[in-house]
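Sanity check. The docking grid for 2DC depends on where the pocket ends up, so I'm generating a full predicted complex first rather than guessing from homology. Inputs follow.
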Amino acid sequence: MVRPFSEIPGLWKNGAANLYNFWKLDGFKNLHRIMLQNFNTFGPIYREKVGYYESVNIINPEDAAILFKAEGNYPKRLKVEAWTSYRDYRNRKYGVLLKNGEDWRSNRVILNKEVISPKVLGNFVPLLEEVGQDFVARVHKKITRTGQNKWTTDLSQELFKYALESVSSVLYGERLGLMLDYIDPEAQHFINCITVMFKTTSPMLYIPPALLRKVGAKVWRDHVEAWDGIFNQADRCIHNIYRQLRLEAGTPKKYPGVLASLLMLDKLSIEDIKASITELMAGGVDTTSITLLWTLYELARHPNLQEELRAEVAAARAESQGDMLEMLKHIPLVKGALKETLRLHPVAVSLQRYITEDIIIQNYHIPAGTLVQLGLYAMGRDPKVFPRPEQYQPSRWLRTETHYFRSLGFGFGPRQCLGRRIAETEMQIFLIHMLENFRVEKERHVEVQSTFELILLPEKPIILTLKPL
Ligand code: HEM
Ligand code: 2DC
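Predicted complex below; grid placement will be based on this.
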C-alpha cells in the first residue's frame, strides 16, 4: 500500500514556528547541517516548511532518478525571489537562470550551442590556457617577492580574479587584465558585489523580499546595491564588444567569444543576450574559485595523492606533446578529484524541481506540483551512498562501481548548469598548471567546515603554502 502525502515525516505544519527555530539555530548559515540532521532524524524522506516555502526532501540516488524523470519539458527550480524581485524592481529582463517555460527553453537551446556543446571546447581551451599560464607566472612572482622561496596565503582573492578573468575571456574574447599587479578597481568592485549578492540572498529565501523592501530593510538595500554593481560592470563589458563589432564588419579571423558569437548569430534579442551574459559572468566567479580552493585544500591534506596527480599530469603532457585539448583527455584522476571536491564541498546544498506528475518515493505518494529537493550535501556524506564518505578519494570515480545519479554537482538534465563546460575546463587547466609548478602544503590539524551563504563557502580562511617544485 502506498502511503499518502500527509504521512511523510517531518515538521511541516507550522512554517512560522519552524522559521523561528531555524533562526535560533543560526539556520541561515547552517542550512546544510540542518538538512543532514533532518535526514538523520526522519530518514530518507521528510517534509518541511520554513517561512513561506514548503518542500519534500530526499537523499538517495535512486530517488533522485525518480525525481528527475518527473521534471517535465520545462524543468523548474525553487524560485530565488530576491533575484527576480531585483529584476522586477529595476525593470531588467530575466536571463536563462530565472526564466521558465517556453521562454526559458527557446533561450537555453540557443545558448547551449555557444556555451556548453562539446564543439565549442576547442575555442575555449586556448583562451583558458593563457589565463592559466598567467596565473602561474603571477604566483612565481609572488614567491620571488617573499624572498623565502614559498608563499603562504589565503588564495581566495587570487582565485576570484582567476575565475573572473577566465569566464570573461571566454564570454568577451578579451582579457580584463586581472593577472597584472594593478587591476581595474571596477573589476575588483564587481567581485565584491557578487559576494555581497550571494550573502544577502540567503535570508531572503525565508523572508519575502517584497516585505523587506517595504520596510526598507538593510539586507534588501545591500542586495540591490550589489546587483546594481554587477549589472553596471557587465553592461560596460557588453557595450564594449557591441561597439567593436559594429566598427569591424565582416567575419573575424579568430574566435570572438560567446557574446560576439550570439550577436552575430542574431537569434536572440539583444536584451535577452545581455541578461544571460550578465548571469554567466556573475555565475562564473565564486563557484569555480571556491571549488578550486577546496581542491587545493584537499591536495595539501593528501600529499601522496598530490604526487599521484602530478605524475598523471606529467604523463598526459608527454603523451599529448603539450596540446592542451588532447591533454584534457588523459587526466581521469584530476577529473575525479574535482568530482570528489564537489561531493564533499558542493556549491549547491540541494537540487530542486517542481515535479510535473505524481510520483512515488520511499513508498509515499507525492502529488504533481510539489517542490522536491535532493539534499546534495547530505547525499555526498551518506555512507550508504559513498563508502567511507569522510575520505577524499578521487579514485572512487574511476572504479567500475556505480555512479548512477551520484555525480550531480552541476545538476542534471536540460536545466543543469549552463556554465558546466567552462567551469570544468577552467578548473582542469588550473590544476594542470598548479601541479606542474608548485607543491601545495598546509598547517597540520587545521580543519575547515562549510558555511551557507546561498552557496557553500569555507567558514574561515584556508591558508595554504605554495612552493616551487
Ligand atoms: C545552474 C553548479 C559554475 C552558470 C547551476 C546549478 C548548479 C550549478 C547545481 C543548478 C542546476 C540544476 O538545477 O540542475 C555549479 C558549479 C559550478 C558552476 C558546481 C562550478 C564549480 C558556473 C559557471 C557559470 C555558471 C562558471 C557561468 C559561466 C550557471 C547558470 C545556471 C547554473 C547560468 C542556470 C541554468 C539554467 O537555469 O538553465 N550551476 N555551477 N555556473 N549555473 Fe552553475
Ligand atoms: C540555494 O534552498 C539553497 O549555480 C536554496 O551560478 C535552493 C537553491 C536554489 C537555486 C540554487 C541555490 C540553492 C544555490 C546557488 C545556485 C542556485 C541556482 C544557480 C546558482 C546553484 C541551492 C549558481 C551558483 C549560479 C548563480 C548565477 C547567478 C548569481 C547569476
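Relevant for the grid: The mean pLDDT is 95.
Also worth noting: The pocket of 2DC (ligand 2) is lined by residues 77-78, 80, 97, 205, 279, 282-283, 287, 347-350, 352, 417, 454-455 (CB under 6 Å).
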